[in-house]
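Deliverable D4.2, example record:
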Amino acid sequence: MAFIGPEEAPQSDFDEKLAAVEKLPLFTKTLTDEDTDNVAMQALQSLAYEGTPDEIAANFKEQGNDYFKGKRYREAAGFYTQGIDAKPTDKVLLEALLCNRAACNLELQNYGSVLRDCAKAMTINAKSSKSFYRSALALLALDRLDEALDCCERCLSFDGSNQAIRGVQDRVAKAKTEKDCRQREREERLLKERNERQLLQAALKAPSSVAGTSENPYSPRFDPDDASRSTLILPVFFLYPQHAASDVIADFVEDTTFSAHLSQMFPPQSPPPGWDEKGEYTATALVVYAMTRRKRLLKVGKKMTLRDVCSAAIEKTGEPIDGLELKDGYLTFAVVPRGEVEQNWVAEFKRTIDNQ
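Output generated by the structure prediction step:
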């Protein structure tokens, strides 16, 4: 038995019926100023509230059913509310009004209201199949899948042949399987990312901030083309201290030589950067220096790879821990022209270190 609300009628039949009903003063939806002063009109409308509470509630229920059949769910809910407000003593009638209003709110996607009305109906009838069914649909829409399954199971415990509930149970079970699968995939991804961070930390001998900060749009990572997960790709700063300028190499593969990058950045036939007014920065005329954590200055040969420099920076046995320092996810190297500029910069660097 599948149910959402009162049985729906063909739209054409409903429209004709409703148009005829709304012409009657008792059921009219709009009043003119002239109508509100009409004593007969007021008397007819008051008839809607004459009779016992059960009779009044039953009348509003029938009107609500007509509007529900025409898919005018908001108006239907209004009539059911008036029926509930009449405080009927017939518990079956009150349960039906609550369930029908829940059906309207289910269509209107007011899921909290659905659950509240169904809960009230269940206090009247603990075996209200419609209440369990609509509660399960609302909980499914809210992604409260365990609660939705519980609703289905409770209903089936006393109404085992209810095919509508079994259909919802199948939908909820499928949604839960998919959600659990997504959760497992998320956990596996997080575990993989955590393991990769640990491998990076071990490879770089860096603190836990090695993965970068919000100021660094790039991050150290393993080369996806290396199945052995042993080749790092790191973001690198080239600082030009003579001019307070810099370049970023976002993807410096650790088995690439420094000369390969310098030859691309400062080719001999290309015009120099705007800040290099003397034209001193050409690939063949530049020297690269690395600074370690212990403030040692290492001269980098152009044929050296980033991996070579990392290995050269590691402390020897028995010495304090050392290595290249990763700040905000970047490695930093100084690039200066060979000759007098280089000598002056190295001397200034040493003086700065000695004064610290």
